[in-house]
Fold:
Amino acid sequence: MEVKKVKKVVILATGGTIAGLAGDVTKPHNYASGQLSVTQLTKNLDATGVHLIQEQVCNIDSKDMQFSHWQTLLERCDFWIHQNDVTGLIVTHGTDTLEETAFFLHAVLKSSKPIAMTCAMFPANVPLSDGPQNLQDALDWVLKTQENGVHLVCAGQVHFAIGVQKIFSDRSNAFASRQESSLQTDTCALKLDWSVPSVAQVLITQHCPRVELIYNHSGADGQLVRTLLEANKKAMSDPITSATQTSAIEGLVVAGTGSGTLSHDLEIALEEAQKLGLWVARTSRCAYGVADPDKHPSIPSLHNLSPAQGRVAMILGLIARRAA
Ligand code: ASP
Structure:
């Protein structure tokens, strides 16, 4: 008897370990990401009663994720979430930069449908392989959840996009977040001092604003910032050198110590950057840190965002500013 297809779910594959293969299955850490196609990934998925649409967006190690990949993925997500008969989306992705893509998609799409990102820590052909279960869990979550927006489904847990971080590099349960569900939104809500661009504004962006990360640490003297500023003077007068990114730095996100604090010398160097027109904002380098807005009032806080997600937030703010 033919099963009635009732729900349409779209899988967009981008690569990562979930699509990776080890040359020797007894050495699970020695493998290449992004080897299997989306149809190979879903071969053993139980999608009974589901009309599954599958697209290969790219097939890369997520350490190599670029703004142009984000744009392609954003365009496909935007297209599919606006199809009335689509229940939700699944995005397969490498774990290394998943939190950045998750933030980007969540902030720009403002999706009223569920989007499950999923991944694996072990390649597809080794006995420890965790990808098939994660993919199954992602599909099951999309089919039953009442929640919207981007979440990560991994190792039996569901993490909201804002605040999720990879905290282990060697175990299947690699991610942590402030809450496992967006139902408690108080500490994982998106608080930004600038606007987020529309999907259209992101898609027409030819050159991703360059935003660099700076780390506060014992003995941080601001010299790295001054070196960047010196190089920036030249870059600002040069033509754009890369196809997707401007060569001049437009923003700096600082991973501050503790509650987003800065050494005295680093603070002075960052204020010099502000005087030259760069956007500068503070995060905390603590896994669950919050940058206290009152600590260095001249340098805005990115509140609860991690340095990696804070950098994406600033890129989006700069795109929105260009479009204003
Ligand atoms: N290097 C891999 C990636 O991010 C790691 C993973 O997927 O676990 O693509």
